[in-house]
Write a structure and sequence with these properties.
16 strands, alpha/beta, six-stranded mixed β-sheet, single chain, binds 1-deoxynojirimycin, 39% helix, globular
Length: 617
């Protein structure tokens, strides 16, 4: 390449990068938006300002609610800035009150946890990360945005960009795994997909990078637990995906439940300072569900004190906690909380609302929803993403299955539509799910039989006989086993054991003893301990919770129409005792080297290594 050509391509690449960065961020530094924000702010009373930073859940709760119901009355007085957990006609009804009855006509922004699809449910985020394909994830996020916005939801509490190293933590399912580089690329993809080319596009939804920060480092993998994170680990592991989301123009962040090094994330001036002062984030920070109220339980003060600490640290909106609304007015009047702090929070929220075009287009075009929801293209994309998310963990040659094979389909997940959807399935409807068994029965009804065998979590073996009979009559057995979606994965679903729940492994062993090749499909939201299976069954596919097109995607994979090309983004342990576990652990001074750790140490040479005496690393 000539020097001139090189220079020219360099300039083009830089221009493309700069202009895409600029367009993603354009809402953040737009003088027209700023002057509208300032003009509005000047007209607002203290009560109206506190209304903007106040948010309630007005639908099915996703946490322990405050039990409020007088939303309309409060909205009419300008006392609420956002509602969440509502969609459809209710959105327009609440919006009408805000726009027509409140003094300044400021629209509400409506949020929801649209995590891996709205109605078209894609595989869970952890599953999607196994595609290693940010462009595909961006497409899925775009579909979610189009469907959600048509139903009145213009703000999603996604992506969860928490790096997680501990499979016990239930929320590992919501992230992109353990690697900060991949996590950053995927964070960007979600933001691009949700927010589209411009935030003001009516099909764009504001994204929310959560949970800021370190939530994935919960000690012992127990949800909501405290974290200890060194400065190096914070900067190298936990912050990068958040910074990537910021650079991609994400409109909002959510502060986390956990404490970091003794200071709760929802009142942490150090971490929120990185976000707002160092990175110059211009959008707003919403708390997690009552995470400001919970600061009282963290032990850092009473209601007024924790509200003051949270707002001055930089949490702009109080989700469901009701403390900003009830305690800040007096503190502003007495000078304990500077008005400038409240103004900054309100300014950020108005900036996002204006950038989203909510003042011009406050209402959802609900009639359009049926045209853009669950379209054949969306469903086909759900299948493609599922197919690309499956990880082939083992295959002794039984896969792909022979088309003429007589197959027994066994297991509690084989025909379980709700659990196939995965945790946090927004408006996902089990009716839309094509389960594994449904897809099998449609493809080769005469050559496939089904037996549930057992429940996901039970000790009853009443279904075992039927399953064993089905296995005896088949050439090959396909077993769909694993975890329940919402009950065992996602929020408040940490586990201290990582095996197949209940008596599923017992059933697996009994069926395998029949002597037919067994293909195990693992439905899970986290890495499981699969030691027995890995040495006894013929093939294992990590299927995750695959969403509405699970069945067709899995059947295509089993018969070889689809190559299971997914790769793990999380480490699978041999036993719980290895957790936290991640591939990028730093070297020690006593690495295992060539020592065989499959037996207890037999010499000093074998013993004084970074190893376990009772398990291989
Ligand atoms: C609590 C969860 O931690 C958060 O991720 C979610 O967005 C909110 N609840 C709202 O449902």
């Amino acid at each position: 390449m000539s020097k001139n050509l090189q220079r020219c391509s360099f300039v083009i690449i830089v221009t493309i990068l700069v202009s895409s960065f600029a367009s993603a961020q354009s809402w953040a530094n737009d003088p027209k938006i700023e002057s509208r924000v300032n003009a509005l702010l000047k007209r607002m009373t203290l009560e109206e300002k506190l209304g903007q930073i106040n948010q309630y859940s007005a639908g099915s709760p996703t946490g322990p609610g405050t039990g409020r119901s007088n939303y309309e009355e409060m909205i009419a007085k300008g006392q609420v800035g956002s509602l969440f957990n509502v969609n459809g006609p209710q959105v327009n009804e609440f919006q009408k009150v805000a726009v027509e009855k409140s003094r300044l006509h400021i629209p509400l922004i409506f949020g929801l946890d649209v995590i891996h699809g709205y109605r078209t449910e894609f595989p869970t985020p952890l599953a999607m990360s196994a595609t290693w394909d940010p462009a595909l994830i961006e497409k899925a996020a775009r579909v979610a945005a189009v469907e959600a916005s048509a139903d009145g939801v213009r703000w999603t509490f996604s992506p969860m960009v928490d790096i997680a190293h501990d499979a016990r933590w239930g929320r590992i399912v919501e992230g992109a795994g353990e690697d900060p580089y991949l996590g950053s690329a995927i964070a960007r993809a979600y933001v691009r997909g949700y927010q589209g080319k411009s935030l003001s596009d009516p099909t764009s939804i504001a994204a929310c990078a959560k949970h800021f920060v370190g939530y994935g480092a919960a000690e012992a993998g127990r949800d909501y637990n405290s974290t200890e994170i060194s400065d190096r680990t914070l900067r190298q592991i936990y912050l990068p995906p958040f910074e990537a989301a910021k650079q991609e123009g994400v409109a909002t962040f959510m502060s986390a439940f956990n404490a970091i090094n003794g200071v709760p994330a929802s009142a942490n001036p150090f971490t929120l300072g990185i976000l707002k002062n160092e990175w110059k984030f211009k959008g707003f920070v919403v708390s997690d569900w009552t995470s400001i109220l919970e600061l009282i339980a963290h032990g850092i003060g009473d209601g007024p004190t924790v509200a003051r600490k949270a707002v001055t640290a930089g949490v702009d909106m109080d989700m469901e906690g009701n403390l900003y609304w009830t305690t800040l007015a007096d503190q502003v009047k007495s000078g304990k909380v500077p008005m400038a702090v409240i103004d900054d929070a309100v300014r950020r929220i108005l900036r996002v609302k204006i950038a989203m075009g909510l003042f011009e287009h406050p209402y959802a075009d609900l009639a359009s929803a049926s045209k853009v929801t669950l379209t054949p293209e969306n469903v086909a994309l759900a299948r493609e993403v599922a197919e690309k998310s499956f990880v082939l963990l083992k295959n002794d040659g039984v896969l792909p299955l022979k088309p003429e094979a007589k197959i027994a389909v066994i297991g509690p997940l084989a025909d379980d539509a709700p659990n196939t959807l995965g945790a946090w399935s927004a408006k996902g409807d089990p009716k839309d799910v094509v389960t594994l068994w449904k897809a099998f029965s449609e493809r080769s009804a005469s050559r496939a039989t089904y037996a549930k065998g057992t429940e996901i979590l039970t000790h009853s073996e009443t279904g075992f006989d039927e399953a064993l009979k089905a296995a005896q009559q088949a050439d090959v057995v396909v077993m769909a086993m694993g975890e329940a979606a919402g009950d065992m994965t996602g929020e408040a679903a940490s586990r201290s054991e990582l095996g197949l729940p209940g008596n599923q492994e017992k059933l697996l062993e009994a069926v395998t003893a029949v002597g037919k090749p067994v293909v195990l499909l693992v439905y899970s939201g986290r890495p499981l301990v699969l030691n027995w299976a890995s040495t006894h069954v013929a093939a294992i596919i990590e299927a995750w919770h695959p969403g509405i097109q699970a069945g067709p995607a899995l059947v295509n994979t089993l018969f070889g129409t689809n190559n299971p090309s997914g790769k793990l983004t999380v480490s699978f342990p041999r036993s719980v005792g290895q957790e936290p576990l991640h591939y990028d652990q730093l070297s020690t001074g006593r690495p295992l080297g060539n020592v065989d750790d499959s037996h207890p140490p037999a010499s000093a040479e074998e013993k004084y290594k970074s190893r376990y005496i009772d398990q291989r690393i």
